[in-house]
Amino acid sequence: MEAKSFKNRLQIFLLLLPGIFMFAVFTIYPIGKLLFMSFFQSGYGVSLKDAFAGFQNYKMVLSDQTFRVSFDNTLLYTLVTVPAQMAIGLLVAVLINELPCFQVGFRVIYYLPVITSWVIVSLVFKYIFNTEGMLNYFLSQVIHVTGGNIAWLDSRWGGLTVAMILGTWKGVGWNMVVFLAALQNVPKALYESAAIDGCGPVHKFFYITLPSIKSTTLFALVMLTIGGFNVFTSIKMITDGKPMHQTETVLTWMYYKAFNEGQFGYAAALSFIVAVVLVFLAVLQFKAMKNRDEGE
Amino acid sequence: MHMKKIRAAKLWIYLVLSLCGLISVLPMIYMISTSLKPNGALYEYPPHFFPNKNNLTIENYIYIFQQQKFYLNFINSLVVSLATIALAAVISTALAFCIARFRFPGRKMLFGLVIATMIIPGTALIVPQFELASFLHVTNKLWGLIPFYVAWVIPFSTFMIKGFIENIPRDFDEAVYIDGGNVFTVFRSIAVPLSGPAIASVSIFNFLTAWEEYPWALTVINDNVKRTLPIAISGFFGEHQFTQWGYVFAMSVASLIPVLIIFICFQKYFVRGLQTGGIKG
């Protein structure tokens, strides 16, 4: 190959160097450090001087009631928002795909929440779901489905509901674009032959569309699961874990322990558990994807 | 009869899409309309969706734009985001080019690590990264944000650009080598210009990532004048939360404008970036 000469090898090395340097220092080293810290009783400003703690931090995390609450909350958030945004996103994509015109217009409208920052949309939702806010007024005074104002942000389930509505609302546009791209790659001939066989739209969707976009569906599933476990800003802005840490997610609780209580060892162990869970879930999903592809 | 049925179906599709679309934009419209009400009208009951004709005002915007802090925060965000996308583009393209084109020891492992690190959420590494930032003395420094943002976006950017470079025919490289070119020449005259669309689409995503990043900036930046927009907005909200939603939303709308401009100008790259990701997956 042409790249055998010493000069070319040196040039390849020089091109790789900045990337490998950044990656090693700012990503790989912190991952190693995270594992290391999780075995020490370390806090802010002190690290190596502290005592080796073995699995003490892990034991503390796993027996901590608030960690369980935050883990359940995160799991619930992921289990609700991921299927919800995928289903709505796919529905919208299928409908937009049928349109002869205004496709771009609808795409822009649905994509607006995606490009707006989490800080801003969280504040807007906090304002809308305020006890004296617009939504309560609409529910109780305009369409009369609730008797009085609901204190959305003062309870565990209320706060989580708001965060989940926000997460779904913000995620639909991303799913729509991803699924729309996949739909436009489905061979038209498949639909035409199905139409000749007298298939209705529902049959077409389940027997042609869904199987054809399988790999995209799994791609979205993996990305959104990671995103679901990463939920942080919306909870921090809307409830900040209140009341009594009942609405914490794993990362907001980790953040609280690290930067409000200075328990870095605990936070590191918690982060590591989250990372392991995510790697496990991703491998599981990739495996499922591979098995399905081979089954074809 | 058949035509009528199709037309009715189309009508339903438009209706459903418009209704869902309305839900999609309603909160944003509400934000804009609230930013145009006087601050005193914000806890009126019953609440009004739109401001009355006679209390429509731009006083919230005037207040925001009169504050020097806002310009500083805005420029901070712009500097950090632009530096992030420039550095990430150069570094990721070089990395992607080498992984796509050459065999070198550790190549498979390097790409495997790139994929693996995309799985771990950035916020999970915040504690060791904070220690690293303290060790490097870059906490509470604006430019200290940049290397961390660059490192976060490198895996995804490399992944996307590598996929694109693999589709460039190797004959182009050969032609340059025959003309006496070396690896650098191929990189500069083939890889960079021909993977332009991929670089553009990842750069847009990287810009959004840096522009809206919240947890890391919140953790390492303390000084008001060094804040980026997201923490400036949340800090401003923290100081004024029960009184001045109008200011908060005026600031939010103003911070949304660069994003909107980019989105409207580069719409096709947005879609392309996501499409590549979707098909690859």
Word description of this protein:
The complex is a heterodimer of chains A (296) and B (281). Chain A is an all-alpha fold and 296 residues long. Chain A has one domain (64-295): MetI-like (MetI-like fold, Orthogonal Bundle). Chain A has helices at 6-37, 56-63, 65-98, 103-115, 118-128, 134-142, 156-183, 188-196, 201-212, 214-229, 233-238, 250-259, 264-295. In chain A, helix 5 (118-128) packs across helix 7 (156-183). The longest helix of chain A has 34 residues, at 65-98. Chain A is globular, with a radius of gyration of 24 Å. The two termini of chain A are 37 Å apart. Chain B starts with a helix and ends with a helix. With 281 residues, chain B is mainly α. Chain B has a single domain (61-280), classed as MetI-like (MetI-like fold, Orthogonal Bundle). Chain B contains 13 helices and no strands. In chain B, helix 1 (2-35) packs across helix 12 (245-265) and helix 3 runs parallel beside helix 6 (145-166). Mean pLDDT of chain B is 86; it is low at 277-281. Helix content of chain B is 75%, strand content 0%. Chain B has helices at residues 2-35, 59-66, 68-101, 107-119, 126-135, 145-166, 170-178, 183-194, 196-212, 215-220, 229-240, 245-265, 267-280. Classes of the chains: A mainly alpha (296), B mainly alpha (281). Chains A and B meet through helix 1, helix 3, helix 4, helix 5 and helix 6 of A and helix 1, helix 3, helix 4, helix 5 and helix 6 of B.
Largest sheet of chain A: none
The total strand number of chain A stands at 0
Rg of chain A, please? 24 Å
CATH homology superfamily of chain A = MetI-like
CATH topology of chain B: MetI-like fold
Shape of chain A: globular
End-to-end CA span of chain A: 37 Å
Structural class of chain B: mainly alpha
Helix share, percent of chain A: over 70%
Overall 3D shape of chain B? globular
CATH superfamily of chain B: MetI-like
Biggest chain contact: A-B, 96 and 95 residues
How does the helix and strand content of chain A classify structurally? Answer: mainly alpha
Assembly category: heterodimer
Please tally the β strands of chain B and state the result: 0
